[in-house]
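To: structure subgroup
Subject: Chain for Friday's discussion

All,

I'm putting the inputs and outputs inline so they're searchable in the archive.
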Amino acid sequence: MKKLLSLISAALVLMMGLTACGETGDKHPDLTAYYDSMSEKLDWSDENMMETPEDVLDIYYPGLKDIETKQFIAHSVMISATAEELVLMECNSPEDAQAAKDILQQRMDDQVDGGAWYPSTIETWKNAHVSVNGSYAALIVSGENQKELTEAYNALFAS
């Protein structure tokens, strides 16, 4: 009986040690891989979900380009009757991510307050997702795919 208990104890200690070695503490998701996988899954083409041009970034997100990033993705639909935007950022610090979140939240608030023009796009903006997770900030705006995009993004940080 003692041998069995010793064996079980040793196995438990080994399992806990292996589990601890596998944990990195901080997740470092590849935002490009996330975007590419969602783009493929949702069948986005470069024509309907294109990289947001620099001059449009300045209009949509004043001050965002001043925040240094390790990863940065901004894609949107360039048709005002459709609300589809993704901004995904890995900033250099949690403080920078919070500053980015404030800018992204301002974009969302402006759209909800009438900037989106059409009632259906205003509703889409009301359901948008702005978040910070450590040094990551994100804005996810998508009508019918909002839930799927948000859940997949949040899964990048799940333990």
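Points worth raising on Friday:
Strands lie at 50-51, 69-76, 84-91, 129-133, 136-142.
Residues 1-25 have pLDDT under 50 and may be disordered.

D.
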